[in-house]
């Protein structure tokens, strides 16, 4: 009895420590990311590499590999010009990726589209994530980031690409939650997406 009680408390404190140490590392990473964004200028874009930390448990649960997220400065500059936004519009992006509104299957093999709470011109930022190749094999590469309208996201849900949906955040972004849930249910995803309020599976 004593041993079982001790092990139970030990496991609790291990989980408690893991959670807060992860949050601390992510917060520190985000602060560094924000500082670099403020120093980012087009003339030196090729010299910038942003590291956004490792995937959160939530991202790991949908199949994203446990490797650090990397964003190249020249890629960021390209997307800034194409979608007309400033680098500082992406402030706090690491935390937003770790706790997104939704996650979708990407258009390419093993890629993911992550819908965040960061906004650009009233559109929420999408982050496209793909496994690194060659010298970047040990990273998840952010290949694109830009503001995405709610109507486009609804189309992704209808196409059955939904992997995760935060039921508390999604209604503010997509509107009435009932059609969202219904659409996801029609895709057979009600347990993992439309009604899924994230709790780490090992803790359930």
- What would you call the shape? globular
Question: What is the first-to-last residue Cα distance?
Answer: 23 Å
Strand order of the largest sheet: 1-2-6-5-4-3-7
| Domain module tally | 1
Q: Report low-confidence residues grouped into runs of 5 or more.
A: 9-24, 176-204
Could you state the order of secondary-structure elements as H and E?
HEHEHHEEEEHEHHH
Helix content: 40-55%
Average predicted confidence as pLDDT: 79
Number of helices: 8
| Rg estimate, integer Å | 18 Å
Percent strand: 15-25%
Largest β-sheet summary: 7 strands, mixed
Structural class: alpha+beta
Strands, count: 7
Concise overview:
The protein is an alpha+beta fold. It is 44% helix and 21% strand.
Description:
The chain is an alpha+beta fold and 204 residues long. It has one domain (2-203). The chain contains eight helices and seven strands. The protein has helices spanning 2-39, 57-61, 73-83, 93-98, 150-158, 170-174, 177-186, 190-194; strands at 49-51, 69-72, 102-105, 112-120, 123-131, 140-148, 162-165. It has a seven-stranded mixed sheet. Mean pLDDT is 79; it is low at 9-24 and 176-204.
Topology:
Blueprint: H1 2-39, E1 49-51, H2 57-61, E2 69-72, H3 73-83, H4 93-98, E3 102-105, E4 112-120, E5 123-131, E6 140-148, H5 150-158, E7 162-165, H6 170-174, H7 177-186, H8 190-194
Parallel strand pairs: 2-6
Antiparallel strand pairs: 1-2, 3-4, 3-7, 4-5, 5-6
Which descriptors would you attach to this protein?
7 strands; alpha+beta; disordered C terminus; 204 residues; 8 helices
């Amino acid at each position: 009895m004593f041993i079982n009680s001790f092990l139970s408390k030990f496991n609790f404190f291990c989980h408690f420590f893991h959670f807060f140490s992860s949050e601390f590392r992510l917060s520190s990473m985000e602060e560094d990311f924000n500082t670099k964004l403020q120093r980012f200028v087009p003339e030196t874009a090729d010299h910038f590499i942003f590291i956004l930390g490792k995937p959160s448990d939530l991202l790991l649960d949908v199949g994203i590999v446990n490797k650090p997220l990397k964003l190249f400065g020249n890629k960021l500059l390209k997307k800034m010009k194409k979608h007309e936004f400033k680098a500082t519009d992406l402030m706090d992006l690491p935390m937003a990726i770790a706790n997104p509104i939704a996650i979708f299957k990407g258009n390419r093999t093993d890629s993911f589209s992550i819908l965040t709470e960061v906004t650009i011109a009233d559109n929420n930022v999408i982050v496209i994530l793909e496994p690194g190749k060659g010298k970047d094999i040990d990273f998840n590469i952010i290949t694109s980031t830009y503001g995405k309208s709610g109507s486009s996201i609804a189309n992704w849900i209808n196409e059955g690409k939904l992997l995760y949906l935060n039921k508390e955040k999604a209604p503010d972004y997509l509107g009435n939650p009932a059609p969202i849930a219904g659409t996801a249910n029609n895709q057979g995803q009600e347990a993992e997406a439309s009604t899924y309020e994230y709790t780490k599976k090992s803790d359930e």
